[in-house]
Amino acid sequence: MPFTQLKLNPLLVNAVKELGFVRPTAIQSDAIPPALQGRDVIATAQTGSGKTAAFLLPIINRLLERPRRTTRALVLAPTRELAAQILEDFNALSIHTPVTGAAVYGGVSMGPQEHAFRSGVDIIIATPGRLIDHMRSPYARLNQIEHLVLDEADRMLDMGFLPEIRRIVAKLPGKRQTLFFSATMPPPIAVLAAEMLHNPVSIQTQRPAPASGITQAVYPVAQELKAALVAHLLQSKTMTQALIFTRTKHRANRLADYLVHAGVRADRIHGNRSQAQRTAALAGFKNGVFPVLVATDIAARGIDVDALGHVVNFDVPQVPDDYIHRVGRTGRAEATGEAFTFVSPEEEGHLRDIERVIGRRLLRVTAPDFDYQARPNQRLEIPIRQRIAEIRARKRDERARQAVNQARRAAAGRGQTAPPRSPNPHGGGGGRRRRRG
Ligand code: AMP
């Protein structure tokens, strides 16, 4: 089912398209229609299911029809990271609309948050503790709330937020829509839900399984040889186009540099790249100018590349859901794809976690003709201690050179014979003397 069939405002459908979402996820097609009608919803859904857009889209859609400058929607989330993430998703989804939102969480100053309340932003995304702090002041009025979302309710309960949630809900109008999301439904959650929801639509999503057309394989390889293995798989045509995930921005940069140096057309996207650079990299990858795109996970969210051949987990994802989510990028629309995961001996534990979640052992393969005994000529990361030692040694040499030069100048000023020029601390030719040949 395409997004256009969900009866969402075209401004939202445009935003969704620009984010690269091709079709709604299961939770989105199940939750959006009843939520648009104003029904209460209770859903079991994990991170990665697309649950955030499943509650934000219908709420923004309904807020579009209402007068501005009154806070009419409240989202409660367990952590500031999640609240910030929801606000980010809100900003992206509401980009073409006048609907406004703000996040309210601890650890930052209250002032801008107070301003958000006073100016009547349409939607507030809050952690319970900080919201209660604001509710002590008269500006934090919640008496016009028409939509309430509890996101990750089980985590809020685990974190001991139940009393705060009850206090907050007691201040909200009884006539409102409530959307309730939880990864699990243990009895205390079911009790809370029964208290808060009226005749809800109940939705259960399964943990997403990787698409069936995908072949998954694991390459055991030493950490230092991973970059060389990527180059080898490309050169041997084992893969011709690949989206490669690395753990950090630094590794993404070094790997892309390594590949370019090895003659591979590769670009990169990560959080330190400007939006223009990211857009250009993605366009280049999609139209085949760069057959290889190196990305950190965050930057690559929402990428949908038709018939994408390979996904390479250059580093084993530390969370099993990330593995499923990434691997799900290949094999879309019935295309067959392959997902390779490079595992160094230190990463075996994380791989076992993934295998436990997907319920099977992944195939281990070795690349024929790849020199697993090779000494790497370039490391992706120079250990920090080594980097510091190198910087110190360089500084020491500079100081020694300066001291010698100073002495020379002083001696020249007194008309004495100059001492020899600054020594080269690494041996092999000195100072500014030109080398022959
Ligand atoms: P969530 O479960 O809300 O944390 O979403 C997980 C990720 O899926 C986020 O990075 C979203 O941007 C992305 N996402 C949400 N809906 C879709 C969709 N319909 N198609 C592709 N990606 C989506």
Number of helices: 16
The count of strands amounts to 14
Spans with pLDDT under 50 lasting ≥5 residues?
329-336, 422-437
Spatial strand sequence of the major β-sheet: 3-4-2-5-6-1-7
What does this structure look like?
This protein has 437 residues and is an alpha/beta fold. 41% of the residues lie in helices and 15% in strands. It is built from 16 helices and 14 strands. The strands form 2 sheets. A 7-stranded parallel β-sheet has the order 3-4-2-5-6-1-7, with helices on both faces. Strands 10-11-9-12-13-8-14 form a 7-stranded parallel β-sheet, with helices on both faces. Helix 14 links the parallel strand 12 and strand 13. The longest helix is centred in the last third of the chain and has 30 residues. It is globular, with a radius of gyration of 28 Å. Adenosine monophosphate (AMP) binds next to helix 3.
Jot down its keywords.
437 residues, alpha/beta, 7-stranded parallel β-sheet, 16 helices, 41% helix, binds adenosine monophosphate
Secondary-structure map with pairings?
Layout: H1 10-18, H2 26-36, E1 41-44, H3 51-64, E2 73-76, H4 80-93, E3 101-104, H5 111-119, E4 123-126, H6 128-135, E5 147-150, H7 153-158, H8 162-170, E6 177-182, H9 187-196, E7 201-204, E8 214-220, H10 226-235, E9 242-246, H11 249-261, E10 266-269, H12 275-286, E11 292-296, H13 297-300, E12 310-313, H14 320-327, E13 337-343, H15 348-358, E14 363-364, H16 384-413
Parallel strand pairs: 1-6, 1-7, 2-4, 2-5, 3-4, 5-6, 8-13, 8-14, 9-11, 9-12, 10-11, 12-13
Helix pairs in contact: 2-3, 3-4, 6-8, 14-15
Bound molecules: adenosine monophosphate.
Adenosine monophosphate binds at residues 21, 24-25, 28, 47-53, 301-302.
